[in-house]
Specification:
heterodimer, A: 501 residues, 3 domains, 35 strands, 17% helix, B: 269 residues, 0% strand
């Protein structure tokens, strides 16, 4: 078993009142190239900063070789960072930048005195040792002879190399890289990817890499940790993450995906796009499932031989393959193929069982904590919605003063009653008009599901999420109001002993 | 018909006129007076006289010492303030900065006058009589009071521009808080230090209002000296003014004050 060099145990981080890391646990094996992958704001950089020591976890532990380093300052951790914008010291030249860490360092040397007794002394590195190490580091990053150059005369790629040399010269146990290639152009980035991978192999130390570029992550890593919303979505090898995404988020974020709502109709049989397919995942019969199909797993054939038959509506040349979009009934499928098709052509499509990935849908309905107001509306998720309160007590009705009269004739004032609010995935709509709905929020996620979009709208104050399906295309980050018809709000009484979420 | 148009050059005329009549011509006049005698003949007498007169030389040295002490005190007070303000994430730090700058909105003669009254009041108290006679102390105190904002502002703007990730990089590479301060913060704030030093040292050499009002006219700095000479001997006064100009020019040259990219004087607010 490989040794765990870094382990995070239930790490949670708040910035002021914002939860950025939500109970994250994972470990990193010694010598591994591990990548934190996720969209911006997913918490990957914060996680890295906590390992480096720039941010401290609000709760939870960070273990380095089994020792708790959660609260240790950065200068006492055996890790070094390559910063996103390099953070090279502008007042120092290349040599002085790289030597910066070495000059801070003290090593324990053992000497022998006249009587033959050994004693140790903490000493700074000598000038010769420092210059030898700097020279070696410059060789590793291919910048021999750059010692005297000033930072401002270097190109972006060269600065990048100096930043790497400045970190590895200290022989850290872990090298942290915070989107180090983000500022480079595509060609340079590809070259540096290969070089970094080679460097990792030669140095044999652990690399922790942060990126939002899924291709970069797939190319370089031994292990990928996919993060979103401060939560780890999946941990696995690049192949596993790509071929067996744990949920629709991972499937959508890593590579191209067709995502459909499906239903399991039998033993290893799933129905989606109106047809039944064989698959490898075992789910309960009748269970809803998110179905993910990679574009390259859809095989084109003649219309009479395909399980699915559709019309080609777009063809885009992508260099190595064509990206073909086909319309099958009301569903759209994206296919990657080395063969081209004509727009308007009818094609058949087949999907092999190992190309169909089933996932338990993360969202089946929306559940909120609400409170009944004086006006017999319900308040939740930063807003107030009209609802039918009589459903709380079967057979009850409202009197003319809006008091609830139960079936037994009892009069109840519902004000401030805590209730559980449930709204179905198809019962929510949104509008541009901020006044139209009961609350407002921003669209934080849009996933195309073949014939509709699945949206998540998050309210701004309480950060409650509304998940729902819609046929219309919206833009991420739009501010919208959330409309729920009165009769679609399901209320149940919350019992006092029930724990508050 | 040709339509008369204002070109950009035309817009410069008012300032050009100002420049010629109030900067260039007076300089030429000073130059002329410095190298002539009372009969308006070319003469290097003033130059020789200045450097052979110990009183004149000692006044220059005195002025330099007072300027040096004032500048050092200002730097020692301003540096931590600027550093803390620049690095704090406090929302209302603008207000604190304003409080430092606020005195500059009141005429400085008034402020110095108020300070003199305050000193008079204090020295009438028991055990504070020493204050009445300590003219140098009061002069330096007044100058620090007056020129402190000119030290804080350039330091603050320079430190604000230091990329915070450099502090993190330094800590990441193993530097302690103190090492980061000496190896990153100080070297990167040098342009601000230079600006602040120039903006405090120069006026404290020449601004004799403070020394007159607080030093009971017992403290003679070089500005006062020039002003006195212009009462009776314009030629000597011009020579001293010229020598001061050269001293300032040389010191500005050495501190890099002519480099435009490092010119950060009071760029905020």
């Amino acid at each position: 078993m490989a040794e765990h060099i870094i382990e995070l145990q239930n790490v949670t981080k708040y910035y002021d009142d914002n939860l950025v890391i939500d109970n994250v646990s994972f470990y990193v094996n010694k010598g591994e190239f591990i990548t934190f992958l996720g969209p911006s704001g997913c918490g990957k950089t914060t996680t890295l900063r906590m390992i480096a020591g720039f941010d401290l976890p609000t709760s939870g532990k960070i273990l380095l070789n089994g020792q708790d380093i959660s609260l240790l300052p950065p200068n006492r951790r055996p890790v070094n960072t390559v910063f996103q914008r390099y953070a090279l010291f502008p007042h120092l030249n290349v040599f002085e930048n790289i030597a910066f860490g070495l000059k801070c360092k003290k090593v324990v040397n053992t000497y022998e005195n006249d009587r033959g007794e050994q004693y140790t002394k903490k000493e700074k590195l000598s000038k010769k040792e420092i210059s030898d190490k700097v020279k070696k580091a410059l060789e590793i990053v291919d910048l021999e002879g750059f010692e005297k150059r000033s930072i401002s005369t270097l190109s972006g790629g060269q600065q990048q190399r100096v930043a790497i040399a400045r970190a590895i010269v200290n022989e850290p146990e872990i090298l942290l890289l915070d989107e180090p290639l983000g500022a480079l152009d595509l060609k340079m980035r590809k070259e540096m990817q290969i070089e970094l991978k080679e460097m990792h192999r030669r140095l044999g130390i652990t690399f922790i890499y942060v990126t939002h570029d899924q291709e970069e992550a797939l190319t370089m890593s031994d292990t990928i940790i996919v993060m979103a919303d401060g939560v780890v979505q999946q941990i696995g090898t690049p192949a596993k993450i790509y071929n067996e995404p744990a949920n629709t988020f991972v499937a959508d974020f890593i590579g191209e995906s067709n995502i459909f709502n499906g239903t399991v109709v039998g033993d290893k049989k799933v129905k989606f796009c109106g047809k039944t397919f064989d698959c490898l995942d075992e789910f309960e019969k009748g269970e809803p499932a998110d179905v993910v199909v990679r574009p390259e797993d859809i095989l084109m054939t003649t219309p009479d031989r395909g399980t699915l038959v559709g019309e080609v509506i777009s063809v885009v040349f992508k260099g190595i393959h064509y990206e073909i979009t086909a319309q099958v009934g009301k569903y759209e499928l994206v296919i990657n193929s080395t063969e081209s098709r004509k727009i308007g052509e009818m094609i058949g499509m087949n999907i092999a069982p190992d190309g169909i990935h089933l996932m338990k849908p993360k969202y089946t309905s929306n559940i909120f904590d609400g409170v009944i107001t004086k006006r017999n509306t319900v308040r939740f998720a930063d807003g107030e919605f009209e609802c039918d309160v009589t459903q709380l007590y079967p057979g009850s009705h409202l009197d003319e003063e809006d008091y609830l009269i139960t079936a037994a004739g009892e009069k109840i004032d519902l004000t401030d009653t805590e209730v559980k609010v449930e709204v179905g995935l198809y019962d929510i709509s949104i509008s541009d008009d901020a006044e139209a709905g009961g609350t407002t929020g921003r669209i934080i996620s849009i996933i195309y599901k073949g014939d509709h979009y699945r949206l998540i709208v998050r309210t701004e104050e309480e950060e409650e999420d509304f998940v729902f399906a819609t046929d219309d295309l919206w833009n991420e980050n739009d501010l919208v109001s959330v409309i729920i018809p009165k009769d679609k709000i399901k209320l149940t009484l919350k019992h006092t002993e029930e724990k508050k979420r | 018909m040709k339509i008369p148009r204002f070109s950009r050059k035309t817009l410069c005329i008012p300032y050009a006129v100002f420049l010629i009549f109030f900067v260039i011509v007076p300089m030429l006049v000073i130059f002329f007076y410095a190298f002539t005698d009372s009969n308006m003949h070319l003469s290097f007498n003033n130059f020789v006289k200045f450097f052979s007169d110990p009183t004149k030389l000692s006044t220059i040295v005195y002025s330099l010492v007072i300027a040096l002490i004032t500048t050092v005190i200002c730097l020692v007070i301003a540096y931590p303030v600027a550093y803390i303000l620049a690095r704090s994430t406090m929302k209302r730090k603008f207000v604190i900065l304003m409080l430092f700058v606020l005195p500059m909105w009141i005429n400085f003669v008034l402020r110095v006058n108020a300070l003199r009254e305050l000193f008079n009041l204090l020295s009438s108290l028991d055990g504070m009589a020493w204050l009445a006679g300590s003219n140098y102390f009061k002069t330096v105190f007044g100058m620090v009071y007056d020129f402190l904002p000119f030290m804080i502002l350039p330091l603050y703007t320079t430190m604000l521009k230091i990329d915070p990730s450099l502090y993190e990089a330094s800590a990441d590479l193993g530097a302690s808080g103190f090492a980061t301060f000496t190896r990153v913060t100080i070297p990167l704030s040098v342009p601000g230090i230079m600006s602040g030093v120039t903006m405090v040292a120069l006026p404290s050499m020449t601004n004799y209002v403070v020394s007159d009002m607080l030093g009971n006219a017992k403290v003679t700095i070089i500005g006062k000296f020039i002003s006195d000479y212009f009462g009776n001997d314009w030629h000597m006064g011009s020579m001293i003014a010229l020598i001061l100009l050269i001293v300032v020019f040389v010191s500005t040259w050495f501190t890099g004050g002519f480099k435009s990219e490092e010119n950060v004087r009071g760029t905020s607010l």
